[in-house]
Design brief:
Blueprint lengths: L1 H9 L4 H10 L17 H17 L3 H24 L20 H11 L8 H13 L2 H18 L1
Helix pairs in contact: 1-4, 1-7, 3-4, 4-7
Length: 158
Amino acid sequence: MLVIGTLAGEAPDIDLLFFYFNQRSKASKKVAEHRDYFTHTPLVWLVLSLAIVTTGRIFDSSFVQSIGWMILAGTFCHFILDSLEHGIRWLWPFSNKRRALLNTDPDIEYARIERDNAAVSKGTFKSYWRFVTGPYLKSWTVWLEILITLAALWALCQ
């Protein structure tokens, strides 16, 4: 269950792959941030996890139900951490507005990242790496997320 919860906590960031390939495509519509994909919306994970819980109830499997609850707990911990500083679309599909506890403007952050990456060719792995590591490694919430993940892995090994 700890492995499932840990992986679920990282699961919303699967959109980093979509984001990378979107940035590589010269003809694609620019997506400002990886949190703009549907995989970074609570409703998607709520529906998925409750479907798993319901499946577990139908087949009278407490193990399958536990998996659903762990997915829900892991993803919502991720969303709470993202909501501290960066914001996510809590009300999607009804609203595309990202909400954060701290007032941050993703457009300003994206413009700063674009300026920092101006010397690097767009669509290359190097530009993507700079885009991902630049703002994220300077963010205290990503370090908190890493610490929580390491704590979960440490608990798994005990």
